[in-house]
Design a protein that fits this description.
Number of helices: 9
Order of helices and strands: HHHHHHHHH
Distance between the termini: 14 Å
Number of domains: 1
Radius of gyration: 19 Å
Length: about 220
């Protein structure tokens, strides 16, 4: 059973091997750089500045830059919808930049000497594993379907929002020297639960799509 599944996967892989070809076939309007895309790119440029400010423990700077980056995520999406600037390029770039931002901040928090309480390395490891599994799942789906589709689930969006607010709250705690240990433990546990639940939610959605495509038998 597994051998047949792998053989079928490899067949489809070679059939739809080049993602570059897929991009080349897209109409120009789907690859154009819009104002929404520019805002997304600017958010990407903010990431190294945020990381450097964290390394030097400039928590006030890190706080405001992260708030600006988070606000830009809301702004680019609304601009794309309101001004009809939704493109395939923007749809791909936006979630990728979001993940780079969140992962970069969490990894830095785990290794930087924080003034109060730091993020456990195992917590970051779980988030990394989740993102790697989602990436592998997305690549397999591209091989199966021959298309690149990005449809975040409600639970996935909720998890992202929770992570953003958790980071903002942490930066505020570091800057103002707050030590709400109970709130910290509760928030950490809540984000962890959401991360795990969202992973299983994406797996459920992915398996459902694979069955619809006839790749998996019911």
């Amino acid at each position: 059973m597994i051998t047949v599944w792998v053989q079928e996967l490899l067949k489809r892989l070679f059939k739809t091997m080049s993602i570059i070809k897929f991009f080349k076939k897209l109409p120009l309007k789907e690859k154009r750089v819009t104002w929404a895309t520019i805002i997304t790119i600017l958010r990407l440029c903010l990431i190294p500045i945020i990381i450097v400010s964290m390394i030097f423990q400039e928590w006030g700077v890190a706080f405001w830059l992260f708030v600006v980056a988070s606000f830009s995520d809301v702004l680019d999406g609304n601009i794309a919808r309101f001004f009809d600037q939704r493109t395939f390029l923007g749809a791909c770039l936006d979630p990728i930049v979001d993940k780079i931002l969140i992962l970069s901040v969490f990894i830095t928090l785990a290794f930087v000497q924080s003034p109060l309480f730091s993020i456990p390395k195992w917590f970051v490891f779980i988030i990394l594993i989740k993102e790697i599994l989602l990436l592998l799942g997305a690549l397999i789906f591209i091989m199966i379907n021959g298309k690149i589709e990005i449809h975040p689930t409600i639970l996935g969006k909720t998890t992202m929002v929770a992570q953003v607010f958790f980071i903002i709250w942490l930066f505020a705690c570091y800057f103002f020297k707050w030590v709400p240990v109970k709130t910290y433990k509760f928030s950490l546990s809540l984000v962890l639960i959401l991360v795990i639940l969202s992973l299983f939610d994406y797996i459920r959605v992915g398996l459902g799509r694979a069955k619809k495509l006839g790749f998996l038998k019911s």
